[in-house]
C-alpha cells in the first residue's frame, strides 16, 4: 500500500497509531519479528496466496460496490526486479562467480580441483569479487572468449559429480548453451597473450550477439528475467481494469507477470478466459495493436467479447469489377463465429448449410441456394463461387450450390479495419488511454517499476499485492466520496434552528 521496506513496515506497525486502529491492535500487540514476516511471505508463494488474495478480494469489492465489468481495457508495463543490468562479459563473470562461491560453500573438497588461475580471474583470495569484467572495450572481446572457455572447463570438470545437481551448475550449463556453439569442430584455442593460454583449447566458439535469443539468461540472480528489444531487461506485467463510466471507481481486474521477451499477442485470449472463469468477463475489451491480431479477435468473438484495437499491417487493395463497383468480400457477410445462427450474405440471404474445417477451425465453408444467388442484384460483385457437386455432410449434392470459403480471422480483421476508417472509431478508442494512468499509478505510488525482490515467484507475489493495494486504496476513496457532503450542499442547507 505504502511501498515500504520490511523494516519500515514493521516500524510503522509498532509505533503508528493509525496502523493500530486499522488493524484493530492494542499497543502491546503491535509487534512482529522480521523472520515471521519473511516466513509468511514464503508460505504465500508456496500456496499461490498472492493470486488468490488479489482475485478473491477484488471480486468481493466488485460485488460490494456494484461495479460493472462489461467494458475493460488491457495493457502491459515493463518492470525490473532487484538486479543489476549486466553486460555480456559481466554476465559470464557473475555466473562463474556465483558457481564458484556455491561450490566452495557446499562442496569444498571438490572445489579444490579448480585451477588457481581460473578461480583468481573471478574471486580474490578473500572470497570477494574480482574486477575481471571491468575491461576496456578493446579488451572486452578477448576476456569474453576467456570466460566462455572457462565456463566450458567448469561444466566439463564437474559433469557427473555431486556438483552437477546444484542449481548454480544448471545456470552454468544454460549459459554455455545459450551463448556458445559447442562441438568437436569448434576451435576454442586461446591466444598466446590471453589469460588462459596455458590451460589448453576447448571445443567451443562464442555466438555472435545477433545469434543469442532474447529469452536467454540475463543474470544468475534472477534466471527468469528476459530481454525485450525496445524495453530492455526485466518482466512484463499485464494489467486489465474496468472502464465503465457509471462505476464509483475503476478496479484492476487482472494482473499477470509475463516474460519481457514474449509478445503481448499471446496473452489476450488467456486474460479473457481467466476473467470469464471469475464471472467478470468483458463484453468489450480495449487494447493496443499488439493484442489485436485477427486470431485473437476471432477467439475473443467466440467468447462473446469484442476486441477494440487498431489493426496492424496495411490494408489490401480493393479489386474493382469492370463496371467500377467494389468487389464484396467475406467481411461483408454476417457470420456468427459461434455457429448458433446461419450466416447471412450482403443481400440478406441465409446460408443453407455451414461446415467448419476440423483441422483449421478458423476456416468455415458456407453454402447458399442457387435459386437465391443467381437472380441476386449483387451477384457480379459477390465472392461466392458455383460448385457443381459440393460435399454436404459427407454426401454429394446433386443440385450444386454457391459456396464461400472464409477465414474467420481475416473476416474479423476486415470488419475492424472498416470500423477503424470511420471517424467515430477514434473517439471510441480513446477510452483505452486511461490505463496508462493506472500503470503510472502502480509504478509511482506503489513501487511497481523497480521491485525490491528478485526471482519469478517473489516478483509475481509483489505484483499481485501491489495491484491489490491499489484496489483497496481506490475503494477507500470511493467510500469516502460517498460519505462526504459536497461543499455546495452545505452552502444551500437551511440554517440550524
TrEMBL record:
It comes from the Eukaryota. Residues 344-476 form the Transposase DDE domain. InterPro entries: Tnp_DDE_dom. Pfam families: DDE_Tnp_1_6. This is Transposase DDE domain-containing protein. It comes from Geodia barretti.
Amino acid at each position: 500500500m505504502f511501498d515500504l521496506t520490511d523494516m519500515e513496515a514493521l516500524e510503522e506497525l509498532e509505533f503508528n497509531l493509525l496502523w493500530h486502529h486499522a488493524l484493530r491492535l492494542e499497543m502491546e500487540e503491535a509487534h512482529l519479528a522480521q523472520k515471521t514476516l519473511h516466513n509468511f511471505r514464503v508460505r504465500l508463494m508456496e500456496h499461490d496466496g498472492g493470486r488468490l488474495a488479489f482475485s478473491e478480494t477484488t471480486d468481493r469489492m466488485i460485488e460490494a460496490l456494484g461495479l460493472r465489468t462489461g467494458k475493460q481495457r488491457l495493457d502491459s508495463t515493463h518492470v525490473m526486479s532487484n538486479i543489476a543490468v549486466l553486460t555480456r562479459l559481466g554476465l559470464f563473470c557473475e555466473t562463474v562467480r556465483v558457481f564458484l562461491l556455491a561450490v566452495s560453500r557446499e562442496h569444498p573438497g571438490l572445489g579444490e580441483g579448480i585451477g588457481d588461475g581460473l578461480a583468481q580471474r573471478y574471486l580474490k583470495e578473500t572470497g570477494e569479487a574480482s574486477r575481471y569484467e571491468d575491461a576496456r572495450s578493446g579488451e572486452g572481446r578477448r576476456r569474453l572468449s576467456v570466460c566462455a572457455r572457462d565456463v566450458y572447463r567448469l561444466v566439463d570438470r564437474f559433469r557427473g559429480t555431486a556438483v552437477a545437481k546444484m542449481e548454480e551448475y544448471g545456470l552454468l550449463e544454460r549459459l554455455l548453451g545459450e551463448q556458445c556453439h559447442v562441438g568437436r569442430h569448434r576451435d576454442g584455442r586461446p591466444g598466446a597473450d590471453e589469460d588462459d593460454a596455458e590451460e589448453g583449447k576447448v571445443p567451443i566458439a562464442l555466438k555472435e550477439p545477433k545469434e543469442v535469443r532474447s529469452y536467454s539468461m540475463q543474470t544468475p540472480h534472477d534466471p527468469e528475467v528476459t530481454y525485450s528489444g525496445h524495453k530492455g531487461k526485466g518482466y512484463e506485467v499485464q494489467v486489465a481494469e474496468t472502464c465503465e463510466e457509471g462505476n464509483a471507481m475503476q478496479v484492476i481486474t487482472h494482473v499477470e507477470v509475463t516474460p519481457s521477451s514474449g509478445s503481448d499477442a499471446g496473452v489476450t485470449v488467456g486474460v479473457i478466459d481467466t476473467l470469464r472463469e471469475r464471472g467478470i468477463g468483458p463484453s468489450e475489451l480495449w487494447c493496443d495493436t499488439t493484442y489485436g491480431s485477427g486470431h485473437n479477435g476471432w477467439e475473443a468473438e467466440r467468447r462473446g467479447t469484442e476486441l477494440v484495437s487498431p489493426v496492424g499491417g496495411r490494408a489490401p487493395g480493393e479489386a474493382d469489377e469492370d463496371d467500377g463497383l467494389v468487389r464484396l468480400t467475406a467481411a461483408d457477410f454476417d457470420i456468427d463465429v459461434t455457429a448458433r445462427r446461419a450466416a447471412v450474405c450482403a443481400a440478406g440471404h441465409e446460408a443453407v448449410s455451414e461446415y467448419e474445417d476440423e483441422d483449421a477451425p478458423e476456416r468455415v465453408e458456407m453454402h447458399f441456394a442457387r435459386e437465391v444467388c443467381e437472380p441476386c442484384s449483387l451477384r457480379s460483385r459477390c465472392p461466392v463461387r458455383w460448385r457443381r457437386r459440393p460435399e454436404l455432410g459427407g454426401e454429394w449434392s446433386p443440385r450444386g450450390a454457391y459456396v464461400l470459403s472464409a477465414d474467420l480471422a481475416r473476416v474479423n480483421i476486415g470488419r475492424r479495419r472498416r470500423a477503424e476508417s470511420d471517424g467515430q472509431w477514434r473517439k471510441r478508442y480513446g477510452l483505452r488511454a486511461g490505463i496508462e494512468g493506472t500503470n503510472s499509478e502502480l509504478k509511482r505510488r506503489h513501487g511497481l517499476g523497480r521491485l525490491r525482490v528478485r526471482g519469478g515467484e517473489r516478483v509475481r507475489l509483489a505484483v499481485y499485492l501491489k495491484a491489490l493495494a491499489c484496489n483497496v486504496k481506490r475503494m477507500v476513496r470511493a467510500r469516502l466520496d460517498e460519505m462526504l457532503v459536497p461543499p455546495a450542499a452545505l452552502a444551500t442547507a437551511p440554517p440550524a434552528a
